[in-house]
Write a structure and sequence with these properties.
Length: 383
């Protein structure tokens, strides 16, 4: 296998539970050799499904690894750039984690990179955030204390609806793709093969119903009051359809509140957290979505099991639910990552950057490969 297996070795920052990395590897063009994240249960999920090459650590205190890297993948936290929250951007430590992406770009000097974030990055801090982030990605050496010399990237930035890339969910994200300038090619424009014909909620949830004992498929977590409230709503409706003055009427700030899915359309955006009424709600049954259903709407295969550290008892399921919800809501949908990374790989091939056989990888790269990752790929190839 080592002589014929050719892919671009990749490093993944802020990898979470592995949505971007899974999609990258599903493209058939990339092998992730090293990843990092500081969220414990996301890291445990990653290890279970993708392999032991992920490090659980604070990236700001971690040295850049000595591994081969042709593609850098990065999904830095987006909350401080989201228009749903404070939109503080550069004012917070979390909003400045893009500097770590620049540090890794300067040290590893990959041929290309992909960065995913929310569109609010473009407008945060009255545009100053994007000006600084764009400069850091184009000229990462200027953000590195120990740079060994300048390296520059040409970048493209697209706001894409993940539904246009084969995800059964409307989810707008900013996708920044960079190609090292010395390669002499422009970054690709990401194709949108599902424009006008997206996958729907019915495609994701109804065509192949989940078994009651499917992993991460929690049912019955809503109070009787919530169930009765949902009975008042038709598919596609939210809290606004309950008349003012009704005993079950509520107030909400976003359209997600008690909004039931429309089976004929992609789902609305799956989020990682939030208070009552924000869990996402089933189109046929008066209940919140299970995490397994959310995972399907993000494009994860049913074989991808999310770790949470609790047993199957009722109390434990309630405590496990938010841990898994967070992982799924923070993930990059694998089908979208597959399209994005494949487009970048095609550009690198055109630039003469050849995928590497495993035999030519470093000993550290080969050691990063693990049996769970091979099993995951075999399952995906058989679907």
């Amino acid at each position: 296998m080592g002589g014929t297996f050719r892919r671009y070795p990749a490093v993944s920052l802020f990898a979470g539970c592995g949505g971007m990395d899974l999609g990258a590897e599903q493209s058939g063009r990339v092998e992730v050799v090293w990843a990092i994240d500081n969220e414990h249960w996301a890291v445990e999920t990653y290890r279970r499904n993708l392999g032991s090459h992920i490090v659980e650590a604070d990236i700001t205190n971690h040295a850049v690894p000595d591994v081969t890297c042709d593609i850098l993948l990065a999904g830095p936290p987006c909350q401080d750039y989201s228009t749903l929250w404070n939109h503080d951007g550069l004012k917070t430590a979390r909003g400045n984690l893009f500097r770590e992406v620049a540090r890794y770009l300067d040290a590893l000097r990959p041929a290309g990179f992909v960065l995913e974030n929310v569109p609010g990055l473009l407008s945060a801090n009255r545009g100053a955030a994007w000006t600084l982030v764009r400069h850091a990605l184009r000229s990462p050496s200027s953000f590195s204390i120990r740079s060994r010399g300048p390296v520059r990237y040409d970048i493209s930035a697209q706001v894409l609806d993940m539904a246009d890339l084969g995800v059964p969910q409307n989810r707008e994200r900013l996708i920044v793709v960079g190609v090292r300038r010395d390669l002499g090619v422009r970054p690709p424009i990401i194709p949108t093969p599902f424009v006008g014909d997206p996958l729907t909620v019915a495609d994701a949830l109804d065509k192949n119903p989940l078994a009651p004992d499917a992993p991460n498929h929690e049912i019955g977590l809503d109070s009787p009051e919530v169930v009765e409230r949902l009975r008042l709503l038709l598919p596609g409706q939210n809290y606004e359809s309950i008349p003012d003055g009704h005993p079950l009427a509520v107030r909400g700030l976003i359209s997600h509140v008690y909004r039931r899915l429309d089976p004929a359309k992609p789902a609305y955006t799956i989020i990682a957290g939030g208070g009552g009424g924000t869990h996402g709600y089933h189109h046929r049954e008066p209940r919140r979505l299970s995490n397994r259903e959310k995972a399907r709407l993000q494009g994860f295969p049913d074989s991808f099991v999310f770790e949470h550290g609790t047993s199957a008892g009722t109390h434990d399921v309630r405590s496990a639910y938010p841990r898994v919800r967070r992982q799924i809501g923070n993930a990059v949908p694998p089908p979208a990552a597959r399209v994005i990374v494949a487009a970048l790989a095609e550009t690198l091939v055109a630039a003469g950057v050849k995928p590497r056989s495993m035999a030519k990888w470093s000993a550290a790269d080969r050691a990063a490969r693990s049996e769970p990752r091979r099993r995951t790929r075999q399952r995906e190839n058989s679907r």
